[in-house]
Model the fold of this input.
Amino acid sequence: MSKLRFALIGTGGIAQTYAQAFQESNCCDLVGVADINKNSADSFAEPFGAVSFEDYKELESVDFDAVIVSTPPNTHPEIAMHFMRLGKHVLCEKPLCLSVAEARAMLDCAEETGVTFTMASKFRYVQDAIQAKSLLASGVLGEIVQFENAFTAKVDMSSRWNSVSEVSGGGVLMDNGTHSVDIIRYFLGPITEVLALETSGTQNLQVDENVKLLAKTRAGVAASVDLTWGINKQLPNFISIYGTNGTLHIGWGESKYKLNSSPDWTVFGSGYNKVQAFKSKLENFRNSILEGEELLITPSDALASVEVIEAAYKSLNQNLWQPVVEKTEVVSK
Done:
């Protein structure tokens, strides 16, 4: 099997899972690493025998096929398009970028240069999610009525770039919400309307920390999303799907469904496996380039994620709620 040679830019937290995925993959090699912290780049590259640099432009001296961009999102367009113009395929971490205009520029550049380009969003590659989508397609749950997604862990974001709006473009809605939007679109298709509500935070961040998002799909299904960095709800499931014939849960440790006609749950998966998802993501990207396999996340999907998140922030910032006017009737005695 021909191997695809990757370079990776940015050795922060998300890159550590890429390291594990490369170690488990038989068809993807890491040959180059760049990070503004040269010591971090050196340490990351050493187990792979990869070369390391402080400036990502120095990677031009390395023979590789594709690049993973895992830096903060405000840097994504510049870095991604730099490598596209060199003829390198680009797998760009989410959030893809900070605006729809930037996203369109990235897609246009990929089309002009003829390279493969898409957004790296892990949940489409979780095996339980793939199995759940097949179950829905089989019609076992009947017509889908409601969809719920929750990412609700307490995380200290006070000293991370994610809470610097100029770098991140937003808070939990931008960060985890990008996953949520892609999950909804994966299962239900295009999103046509969104409503976002921010509640008070616990960390005094300059970005949104607790957000409720409602989305309506083209198929007419209502999806609700619960996003927080400030509350540890310890929910067993991160996706719940309710149909006319039954219910399906995708959990962190177990996935299952139950039909209305049955008293018992049917377990179909062992939950979320992060390294498996990253390995599958790398290999799908490799297979799309070398074997013509369809990308699970296409460039159009990547653009749509930015479009939906941009619309959600407009809703959040404009407080788009319909007021309810209560009238008190006084009855004279």
